[in-house]
């Protein structure tokens, strides 16, 4: 509370005292409008926030694209695994055909369906092996891009290889080198029927 006497020139502002005829002014000067506190954001702050937000959205979009691609690759690997297991089951179901080595050397394209298929006549082990080969190679070609497969007798069992163009690069090589620009992606299983 400011108190004082105009006659003496003493002015008391809160607990401060001033000397008579002092050049010090103890009155608090109020400016019209705003004090030194800022309210709101500046244009630069808004632009920086938008830049950070935009970069974050681009990162999320790239992450989503990568996740979709990886999911598609995983789907193709699952399909190839199922197709290899399908051939392994066909080998186990036709033991006479395996014993006669009728499944050795299977490779695309799909073969013709034997004449016994779909009739009341029973198929021989050789005809069943021919049917298995044709159906399996056709299934691989339908299920995977540029899909093909091979079955080889390795002496201790059979090596089943499923190949496809995972990168869709137009590769046609079947040497399983791991170079997607030259060779198809390979998934290989060794089974003992």
Structure description:
This protein has 193 residues and is α+β, with helices and mostly antiparallel strands. It has two domains: 1-33, no CATH class; 72-191, no CATH class. Helices cover 39% and strands 16% of the residues. Strands 4-5-6-7 form a four-stranded antiparallel sheet, with helices on one face. Helix 1 runs antiparallel to helix 3. It is elongated and about 95 Å long. It starts with a strand and ends with a strand. The model is unreliable at 4-12 (pLDDT under 50).
Concise overview:
The chain has 193 residues and is of the alpha+beta class. Helix content is 39%, strand content 16%. It has helices at residues 43-93, 95-99, 125-143, and strands spanning 3-5, 10-13, 16-17, 106-107, 148-153, 158-164, 185-191.
Number of domains: 2
Mean pLDDT: 82
Poorly predicted regions? 4-12
Q: Shape from CA axes?
A: elongated
Can you count the beta strands? 7
What would the keywords be for this entry?
193 residues; alpha+beta; 2 domains; 3-stranded antiparallel β-sheet
Topology readout:
Blueprint: E1 3-5, E2 10-13, E3 16-17, H1 43-93, H2 95-99, E4 106-107, H3 125-143, E5 148-153, E6 158-164, E7 185-191
Antiparallel strand pairs: 1-2, 2-3, 4-5, 5-6, 6-7
Helix pairs in contact: 1-3
